[in-house]
Design brief:
By secondary structure, this protein is α+β, with helices and mostly antiparallel strands. The protein is built from 16 helices and 17 strands. It has 4 domains: 5-159, no CATH class; 187-251; 277-327 and 387-501, L,D-transpeptidase catalytic domain-like (Beta Barrel); 331-382, no CATH class. The strands form 3 sheets. An 8-stranded mixed β-barrel has the order 2-3-4-13-11-10-5-15. A 4-stranded antiparallel beta sheet has the order 6-9-7-8. The protein has a two-stranded antiparallel sheet with strand order 16-17. This is L,D-transpeptidase family protein.
């Protein structure tokens, strides 16, 4: 039966209203219209020849849970009924209407597989462009696969071939398989015994995919499995059971699945930007940074992020410059709440820590001319600036980008804190262990050589900051995922330090 595209315009309001809002990309109707243009303007699902396509689509949708998606979001009753020949349509318009619904649903499903299902971008602030041509891209691939009779293969080819996505999907498969086992039950691990008599422990390790069965294994092998579980939860891997470890073990698998679902959909969304430009990713709970160039990991670094009381905000921005030997303009709150009491006790505190006092116009003032005793939290019309040097709180490199929060990536003289497993110490900025090396990667080769020459000379008397522009587009993402792959690609679960989950 021939369906001209004008009919699509007649019914488009019905389907647009029925679909959930998409955070990025084109509206669903743009993709549906392109789909019918490519398929000759005919019904493709509700026909005798379309039965095979409908069966293939139904089979794809049945895998939704393994893909970090909810099958109930994709018209399962309608599509399964049609695939099973148990749905009757009263008239031709019902056939047309249903065909459009199935097409729109298919585009939405495959779009979610490719780009992630998110109610909105997972950041508090973003100045980055939204995803482009997503619905059109998916509609085109869907039409091509359908016309070639290879719809069943589309699911394998359309998702990102990204290490993070693949590892997260593998973890989802492990936990979902365990949860859907008819013998599955949540049994709390309460004993601190690390031996084969601790049956709930053995069961949980099996559910986590760490051991194959409840029988066998020596005490030594069990301790090795406990160490693997401790690594999974980003804890000290010494094979000793502690209350904190039991708490992580006893977290319901359904909760772990939701963490993985959220992470996978964010990883899909992030992958789109990796295909457009170089990407710096900071994941707050894992206190790690990855720099991706041409979709490959070019650098990994441990980082220090904000305390719970001064959290690092999630954001998306563009890196603009690398600053060698930066000044540190102390944020007002830190100046009045933390530094001012020290200054009042001893004016020498300023000189000892290389601080200068500036007025609002940027002029350097003599601290001796200021009546410090009259100043307070609500009366401080000055800026405190720390001079350049190795003792500067920003270290010798600052990586600058715009955000309304006044945060950035930077080096630090306090390298010892990177050795700790829990690294939440900052006022919101991100301290990067490999900041200098990252700075070299962000500029052109000749510029990097000039930077290294200046670094070799060290901080000179009256050293001024040296600014290097970043020539290529580099996106900066600060995300919050309590499940995320580590430097070796192994998925770990991290403490929900800000209580966002």
């Amino acid at each position: 039966m021939k369906i001209f595209l004008s009919i699509w315009l007649l019914f488009s309001g019905l389907y647009t209203a029925a679909q959930p809002a998409r955070p990025t990309g084109q509206p669903a109707d743009a993709g549906v219209q392109l789909f019918y243009q490519k398929t000759g303007g005919r019904s493709v699902w509700i026909t005798a020849t379309g039965r095979q396509h409908l069966d293939s689509l139904a089979a794809c949708l049945q895998k939704a849970a393994y893909l970090g998606l909810n099958a109930n979001d994709y018209e399962p009753l309608l599509i399964n009924a049609l695939a099973g020949n148990s749905y009757q349509m009263a008239e031709t318009t019902d056939t047309l209407r249903t065909d459009f619904i199935i097409t729109s649903t298919a585009i939405r499903f495959f779009s979610d597989v490719a780009y992630g299902r998110l109610a909105k971008p997972p950041v508090k602030y973003s100045e980055l462009p939204p995803l482009q041509n997503t619905a059109l891209n998916i509609a085109s691939q869907l039409a091509d696969s359908l016309l070639a009779g290879r719809l069943s293969c589309l699911l394998q080819s359309i998702g990102p071939a990204d290490t993070a996505c693949l590892q997260l999907k593998n973890s989802i498969a492990t936990y979902y398989k365990a949860m859907t086992d008819t013998a599955f039950k949540e049994t709390a691990v309460t004993s601190l015994k690390a031996d084969s008599s601790n049956t709930p422990l053995l069961l949980r390790l099996k559910q986590l995919g760490i051991r194959d069965s409840l029988s066998g294994n020596s005490t030594k092998e069990l301790q090795e499995q406990i160490r693997k579980a401790q690594q999974l939860f980003n804890m000290l891997d010494d094979g000793v059971l502690r209350e904190r470890f039991l708490k992580a073990l006893n977290t319901p698998l359904s909760y772990r699945l939701q963490e993985l679902y959220s992470a996978l959909n964010q990883a899909r969304w992030l992958h789109y930007y990796k295909t457009q430009a170089a990407v710096i990713l900071v994941n707050i709970p894992s206190t790690t940074l990855f720099f991706y160039d041409h979709e490959k990991t070019a650098l990994y670094s441990r980082v220090i992020t904000g305390k719970k009381s001064t959290p690092t905000p999630t954001l998306g921005s563009r890196l603009t410059e690398v600053i060698l030997f930066p000044y540190w303009n102390v944020p007002h709150k830190i100046a009045v709440r933390e530094l001012l009491p020290y200054i009042k006790r001893s004016r020498q505190y300023l000189a000892d820590n290389q601080y200068e006092i500036l007025d609002k116009s940027g002029r350097v003032l003599d601290p001796a001319t200021i009546n410090w005793n009259n100043l307070g939290v609500n009366n401080f019309p000055y800026v405190i600036r720390q001079n350049t040097g190795c003792d500067n709180s920003l270290g010798i490199v600052k990586l600058n980008f715009y955000s309304p929060f006044g945060v950035y990536l930077h080096d630090t003289p306090g390298k010892n804190l990177f050795m700790l497993q829990r690294r939440f110490f900052s006022h919101g900025c991100v301290r990067v262990e490999e900041a200098v090396q990252l700075g070299h990667l962000l500029v052109e080769e000749e510029t990097a050589a000039a930077m290294m020459a200046l670094e070799a000379k060290g901080n000179q008397p009256d050293q001024k900051p040296v600014v290097f522009r970043v020539p290529a587009t580099v996106y900066v993402f600060v995300l919050y995922n309590t499940a995320w792959p580590d430097a070796n690609g192994q998925v770990r679960f991290y403490e929900d330090v800000y209580g966002k989950n």
